[in-house]
Design brief:
Strand order of the largest sheet of chain A: 2-4-3
Number of helices of chain A: 7
Order of helices and strands of chain B: HH
Largest interface: A-B, 60 and 52 residues
Distance between the termini of chain B: 35 Å
Radius of gyration of chain B: 25 Å
Number of strands of chain B: 0
Strand content of chain A: under 5%
Structural class of chain A: mainly alpha
Largest sheet of chain B: none
Order of helices and strands of chain A: EHEHHEEHEHHH
Oligomer: heterodimer
Radius of gyration of chain A: 28 Å
Structural class of chain B: mainly alpha
Shape of chain A: elongated
Shape of chain B: rod-shaped
Number of helices of chain B: 2
Distance between the termini of chain A: 59 Å
Helix content of chain B: over 70%
Strand content of chain B: under 5%
Chain lengths: 337, 99
């Protein structure tokens, strides 16, 4: 049976935007308790092993002990039970190990958050209610150069913390893939990145092994491609914000009639950022195209599985290539007014 | 037809092993304490573990069913023993009948 479950925390973690307070406190279940949960699953595997051995003993009763038709039936039956229970034992062991490994992922994440907090404190940012707060958004018009410098430095520190937090989240997500893979492989459950149920948590047992496996693999690939696209989008967003900040600074310099070298240097910085942003946009579009294609394949595999369950014919259709929207030319003069 | 052999002690041993495996397994099933506090992918993880715990429960049930089947075989042979004994007595009685 294939089950698909969306994760509430991951959905919530997607909402972090530049300028928001950054959470720097580990408030999830203690990693040690997750580790114990994995241990209890492995202990259950060890008990299933006893049943595996007992079935094996019955399935290998010798002819001297028990012979005849009834004996053959009993041995066959015990043989089948032996195989089935060995699979259950292996699945429990595999998932138990993956849960143990996942507890390390959470432990590393907790350490990362502690380091993030230390970084914020050392850079002079406000840390309150287990959150790193962004500096004030704007400075008064009569702010001194010193105040402006301090303000810029605070924002840079905030940016470093924001990027570190995003990196921590992404590292944790990458490390989570092993768990997700183990869950799909050993327990037949899959994450739902679409926040919608692609494959029904059907009450009926699906006996179409290949279709089910195909749907599971496609779902996993779609999840991975979706993650990559999301990471690319985050990069583009961050660069866009940096570019706008740099443009704002350039505007200020021009209005303040700053020395030409300074304006020139700032303009070069804007150009460099813009170049980086353009490249990132191309990468993002590629990643989005891949994600969309993978999602379509996963949807199709899920549909095939549903159709097979319902006894409907499998519909095979060619998919039109995805066309990216034409990029809007960016005119720096327009944006500078 | 092959001759039927039965070693009741060995059969009972196999049955006891199935019974004791079932007991151990049942108590371990109760030891699984699903985490209630939140962490990323908890729901999916608990869903996966629950489905495997269901499978392990099935294994325990199958231990019981198979132990029952072994038990039935032993009883069958006990009955067979009695029937053979009765048949022997009956044959001996027939021998004593004088035409």
């Amino acid at each position: 049976m294939t089950r698909v479950v969306a994760d509430r925390i991951e959905t919530q973690q997607d909402t972090l935007k530049f300028g928001d307070p950054i959470g720097c406190h580990y408030h999830w279940l203690e990693p040690g308790k997750v580790d114990s949960y994995g241990d209890s699953v492995r202990r259950l595997a060890a008990k299933v092993e006893l049943a595996v051995d007992a079935f094996e003993r019955t399935s290998t009763l010798s002819e001297e002990v028990f012979a005849g038709e009834a004996a053959d039936t009993l041995r066959d039956r015990a043989g089948r039970r032996h195989e089935e229970s060995a699979t259950v034992r292996d699945n429990l062991r595999g998932l138990g190990r993956a849960i143990n490994a996942y507890s390390d992922v959470l432990r590393r994440h907790r350490e990362g958050l502690e380091q993030l907090r230390d970084l914020a404190v050392s850079r002079g940012l406000e840390v309150r209610d287990n959150r790193i707060w962004p500096p004030v958004e704007t400075l008064p018009g009569d702010a001194t150069e010193k105040q402006a410098d301090a303000w810029e430095s605070d924002w840079k520190a905030y940016q470093a913390c924001f990027e570190a937090k995003i990196e921590l989240r992404d590292e944790r997500r990458v490390a989570t893939r092993e768990l997700v893979k183990a869950l799909a492989e050993h327990a037949g459950v899959h994450p739902d990145k679409d926040r919608a149920r692609l494959v029904p948590a059907g009450a009926r047992q699906v006996s179409f092994g290949d279709l089910r496996r195909e749907a599971a693999e496609e779902a996993l690939e779609a999840v991975q491609a979706g993650d990559a696209a999301e990471a690319a989008r985050t990069t583009v967003d961050a660069l866009r914000r940096r570019e706008q900040t740099a443009l704002g600074r350039l505007e200020e310099l021009v209005l303040a009639e700053a020395p030409p070298e300074e304006i020139q240097a700032q303009a070069a910085k804007v150009q460099a950022l813009h170049h980086e942003l353009t490249e990132s946009k191309v990468e993002m579009r590629d990643a989005e195209a891949v994600a969309q294609r993978e999602q379509a394949q996963a949807n199709r595999a899920a549909r095939d599985l549903q159709d097979a369950e319902a006894g409907r014919p499998r519909i095979v259709a060619e998919q039109a290539d995805w066309q990216p929207a034409p990029d809007r030319p960016t005119d720096l003069r327009d944006r500078l007014g | 037809m092959r001759p039927i052999a039965i070693n009741q002690r060995a059969l009972r041993g196999a049955k006891e092993e199935l019974d004791s495996a079932r007991e151990d397994l049942r108590s371990a099933l109760g030891d699984i304490d699903h985490p209630a506090d939140d962490f990323p992918w908890r729901d999916l993880m608990v869903e996966g573990v629950r489905s495997l715990v269901d499978d392990a429960e099935q294994v325990a049930k199958k231990c019981r069913t198979l132990a029952g089947a072994v038990d039935d075989s032993i009883i069958d042979f006990d009955e067979l023993d009695t029937m053979v004994g009765q048949a022997a007595t009956f044959a001996a009685q027939l021998d004593q009948v004088k035409p």
